[in-house]
Fold this protein.
Amino acid sequence: MKHIIVGGVPRSGKSILSNKLIKSYNLSRVPIDVIISSINNSFSELNINANSYLQYPEKTVSFLNSMLSQIENEKKFYYIFDSCFFTPKELEKYIDHPCFKVLFLGYPNVTIEMKLKYISSYAKENYCWMFEQNITIQEINERLSKYIQVSKKIQTECIKLGRSYALTAM
């Protein structure tokens, strides 16, 4: 058994996959995005948030590396980490732990319209941050366009580095 890292863009299905793996393999989930948001909410003066990742991706991966190093040899419990705060290239450069299985998710082949339709249907039954904030449809479209482009980048990096990548429509 190995610890698992699931990465990918927002709304790619990381949480859904993590929750299914938790049930199937008796794992404990560590949602890195929630940890980073909690740090930002509790220590706003540190200015650690999603934009910090964009400015300092190596610091976010260094934070993850520190967490992973502390549990690397844990054999009693196994963990699944999920986050949108790192890319395959960063993991390859900063994290080299053989006791972890890494998987990335993305949706490089969907249109903004397809993704928005899925999110809208999902949001009717589940929490969706995109509809809880006061953001316009134009801002949502801009984010989705960016996430599709990042999905393409992550897919390319995974192929180049030999990392696992799963296409999702989620």
